[in-house]
Design brief:
The protein is an all-alpha fold. It has one domain (3-91). The protein contains 3 helices and no strands. It has helices at residues 3-18, 20-79, 84-91. The longest helix has 60 residues, at 20-79. The termini are far apart. The model has no long low-confidence stretch (mean pLDDT 88).
Length: 92
């Protein structure tokens, strides 16, 4: 590319960068990026709250579930214990 054409191309680029089309497009892009950043922060907070609540529910239900499981195991084991039938008859 001859020097005169390069200079012309550089001038056109500089004129574009100094113009309102470029400025408006950049400002719009910046506004959109800022809005997306705010949305992302809100989404992270929302997920943290939801996961914390879910974790607390699981932690709360685990002891209950384990207690029920232990009770059922104990009941099943006592049914297989020799003398179970006699002890049930005695209770009636």
């Amino acid at each position: 590319m001859p020097k005169s054409e390069r200079e012309k191309a550089v001038r056109e680029v500089l004129d574009f960068l100094a113009g309102s089309d470029f400025k408006n497009a950049m400002q719009d892009t910046i506004r959109q990026a800022e809005a997306l950043g705010r949305e992302l922060k809100d989404e992270v907070r929302s997920h943290q709250i939801a996961w914390r609540r879910r974790f607390e529910h699981y932690n709360g239900s685990w002891p209950n579930t384990w207690s029920i499981t232990r009770k059922v195991i104990q009941m099943m084991e006592s049914r297989t214990t020799p003398g179970y039938e006699e002890s049930c008859s005695a209770l009636q």
